[in-house]
Specification:
Elements (H helix, E strand, L loop, with lengths): L5 E3 L6 E11 L2 E9 L5 E2 L18 H4 L21 E3 L4 E3 L4 E2 L18
Antiparallel strand pairs: 1-2, 2-3, 3-4, 5-6, 6-7
Bound molecules: zinc ion.
């Protein structure tokens, strides 16, 4: 038995066999009728037959192909206070420990010094 006769029938959902029935016009064979061996569902043509070994395998790992986005990559290009070692945050204000003044996280500073990453 040829393995490519195995189908997964869309009508009954069974793994079945393709049944080929010769079609005659009078005594002349004019073609074949393709049917599901389980339920008798007729396929309009060879191209419509859902052969089992033609089933498309699921594609895994699509997510892995997406480039990893480093959320810090762009920020580090700037010299923003939030990445400066002199930047001090407390619940009430953000301060520059070098100039002893209030700053914003997005401020930039000529005396910017990159903070050492402590979060390993
Ligand atoms: Zn069927």
């Amino acid at each position: 038995m040829s393995p490519n006769l195995e189908i997964i029938c869309p009508a009954c959902g069974a793994e079945a066999l393709l049944r080929r029935e010769a079609r005659y016009e009078g005594l002349k064979k004019v073609g074949e009728t393709l049917r599901c061996s389980a339920c008798g569902h007729e396929f309009p043509g060879e191209a419509c037959v859902p052969f089992k070994d033609r089933a498309t395998p699921r594609i895994f790992g699509e997510e892995d192909k997406l480039p990893k986005v480093d959320l810090f990559a762009n920020d580090e290009k700037g010299r923003n206070c939030r990445h400066c070692r002199h930047y001090v945050v407390n619940p009430f204000t953000q301060r520059c420990g070098l100039h002893f003044r209030e700053v914003q996280a997005t401020d930039s500073c000529v005396e910017f010094e990159p903070r050492q990453r402590t979060d390993a």
